[in-house]
Amino acid sequence: MTDLFGFSFYSLLGFGFIPQLLCIVHAYRTGRKEWIFPLIIFSFAGVIVYFLFELLPEIQHGDFARNVQLVFFPNRKIKEMERKFRLADTVTNRLNLAEAYAEQKKYDKAIDLAEPCVNDPYINHTGIYIKLARLYFLSGQYKKSLTLFEKAKALNYNRIERPEDELYIARTLDYLGQKQEAEESYKNIIRVQHSMQAMYYYGKMLKEEGRGEEALAMFTKVKEEKELHPRYVRRLNAKWIRLSAIERRSK
Question: Which of 151, 93, 107, 97 is nearest to 125 (CA)?
């Protein structure tokens, strides 16, 4: 069976299968496993929806090319950073290689590389403490993470510059069992930043504490917050909108 341009019906099916397979691999390797079943069942329609809700926000946020490389060529950046580090053991090359390891969830290697940078007298110690605090958080070493965040704040007039680091601190307090301090941090972030990510994690904490109605209200707040923003903001927050919707349906 051939169409007007000489392509067989089965060739067209093959062209449709390739983006479907790529999306499934992307979803699996980026932790979006809830998308795999819809991508398999709904085929091309699933690919379109996945593109709109997951890939398009990455493109608009400038993360798409980097994420594609991480998914399909995971060792390319590591090899390049290792080569530069072998050429020159500098703080910059150490931190770049540590970042490459962290992107592949090799947090112990990343920490081993970054820790000696603290002893360099000529660097911005606030920045190093923040980078290490994030790495300790991602590796599950929450006490060390919190200690370094506090050191960074002390060096910066008791301020944390980046909103995502404030959320790291709130989550660290949460995971260390310091629930009251965590709750205050979550509430402050939500009040000041209207962060849908913070709303989601705060809702998760409330749910784990058995405060089901408050948790549901927080997951619902994500939906309400979404309606206040233009489409591009919704796309950037697609993950937290989707996860909050899952939590609402699970009640």
Answer: 151
